[in-house]
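User: For my dataset I need records formatted as: sequence, then structure tokens, nothing else. Please produce one.
Assistant:
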Amino acid sequence: MFFDDNPEFLETSTTASSKRRLNLRHIGIIEENEEILRGSSVVDIASHDGRWSYAALHAGATHVTGVEGRRHLIDATRQTFDAKAVPAPQYTLIQGTFTRHCSIRKSSATSSYASDSFTTLRDTSN
């Protein structure tokens, strides 16, 4: 299971979550959406310590943009991604609120998720 294989995410945050609960959330958020994630660019709103951003990349997303308001969590994400040798071109980390960085909507993102929700973005310009 994802958090059994990536236990560092159990230590990068003070938000209490059991490994069992996180693994169940991984099934619901990531595994149930692997077909959508594969080959997609993803926006992870309130990306916390990057656990779901990393999970999206692990599931085949080509790029993840993490938006998080707290600097120490952006730093934790960067440190974890560096330790896991995630290539820098595969992710962008933004400190701030999503509404402050709404121009991201015009990016090439095809999927986004925040907390427990997952949304597939569709191009409505055509």
